[in-house]
Amino acid sequence: MRKAVVKTGAPAPDGALPELTSAAAAATSRPRFLVLGLLAITDGHETVVLQPSKPSSLLAALLLHPGAVVSADLLQRVVWGSRPPAGGRSALHTCVLRLRRLFAKYGVAGHAIEAVPGGYRLHADADTLDLLRFRELLARAGASDDPESALHLAQTALRLWKGPLLGNVHSDELHRDHVPRLAEERLLAVERVFDGELRLGRHREMIAEAREAVRADPGHEGLSALLIEALYRSGRRAEALAEYRRIHAYLTSELGVEPGPALRELHSAVLRGEPTGGRAVLPAAGVPPPPAAEAPTGLGRASPPAPGTLVLRALVNAGLLEEDPSGRFRVHDLLRLFVQAAGASLPAAVPPDPTDLPPSTAG
Predict the structure, then answer these.
(1) What is the pTM of this model?
(2) 323 neighbors 240 (Cβ within 8 angstroms)
């Protein structure tokens, strides 16, 4: 089997693509369009990246609306911006003809682009367009009753993304109004993958990737909630609370909004040390579920928490104390500022009292 090769070639007139080898042209029966990254055409062996051009912008607009009629007015804005040439409809028709000539070079049927009243339409399916393949896989993942299968489908869908998204398409219209919607679809797939890993009990394995996703999109509540839950289930409660404080600060300072109810409820559950609920947690693949713990003889229910534990939880909930990763507590920086402004001072940390704190926090 031949090694896959990306051929970009030198820019050619009218945005023409570098030639595919005759062997590659003979090997392909249904070339595929790629939009989840650089705009390209592939035959499964070689991938040809289109050069920035007017035909490339036109093709991208049609591919982002597969099977739908795209109005001539929108296509003119995509190709020429706010200043289309005189006789814009005629110029658009000429651009379509140039695109069809490019199609002929790479085995794409000329009638793939159909002229219809008011605009043009490009026919595609999941076998000829990666965007439709991505959506099909994600829909199957959502409909699957098998958690392992659902996770695999979502991961396969996510691997279709090759970014940067349409980096070789120079159209302000597409990058302003259409590319952000595609980016949202990708984030939904990322959430689906992380949610699937949580359902399978793989919370420890997903933390690093979840952190990276949150760094890339610091104001996304869904991603932050998944990271908080993964940290909490991994026994890293202090880090989970720190992540909530981070997203809360970001939303209030950058966007002027409070976290949504789902994120607030998750935060409350972590503060109280309660199960997060919301999704069934399955054992990790190949790992049998742990046996149910047996209560010691003579005990019918768990002992109530110590009074010190309840007080500390209340102080953390009120924002007066912060819990560090080691389980120790210190005065919240905001309270320290208030005290300093009043002319008083507080010690750097609240020393633990072994007679009052729970065993995990005793020094």
Answers:
(1) 0.69
(2) no
